[in-house]
Amino acid sequence: MPSTHDSVWMTPQTRAALEAELADLLTVPHAADAESRTDRVVDAWLARKHRVREIHELLSRAGHTRIPPDDGVAEPGMVLTVRFDDTGDTETFLLGTRGTTDDELEVYTVSSPLGSALIGATPGCQCSYRLPTGRSQRVTLLAAVPFGAHRPAGAASRTPV
């Protein structure tokens, strides 16, 4: 079983969309495509093969395909709001995997310095992580809500894909 840092969180809708894309990519190409041996066809075939590998990798690592409970605990699938203690600036982002939602949120992975520092935190917890410069950055978790519940009431809802 993959560790928390190796697993990928995605919505059930994203998993279904990736599975449908994979099924489409794995269908046998038309005979006309198979007979044509131009560079363009070969490039398209290589791109298709690469995408199949990408999807296989994502799906094999998809240990979390559910919306997490609304318990305020920072975990994959939660939208986190943090305050950077040195400046007072705030940022809201999804703790997850890039490319696994169709949303305008910034995504931090659990293996990123900020993401790994926040795993398991609850609102009010102060955490610190190392910046690339070697300096330590302190943040306070202000909120942790499940993906989808982060949208303001009455906002146009987009179904995550």
Automatic annotation (TrEMBL):
Pfam families xrefs: GreA_GreB
UniProtKB keywords: Elongation factor, Protein biosynthesis
InterPro entries: GreA/GreB_C_sf (IPR036953), Tscrpt_elong_fac_GreA/B_C (IPR001437), Tscrpt_elong_fac_GreA/B_fam (IPR023459)
Origin superkingdom: Bacteria
SUPFAM superfamilies: FKBP-like
Transcription elongation factor GreA/GreB C-terminal domain: residues covered: 71-142
Chain ranges passing through the membrane: none
GO molecular function, one term: RNA polymerase binding
Biological process annotations from GO: regulation of DNA-templated transcription elongation
Protein name: GreA/GreB family elongation factor
Taxonomic source organism: Mycolicibacterium rufum
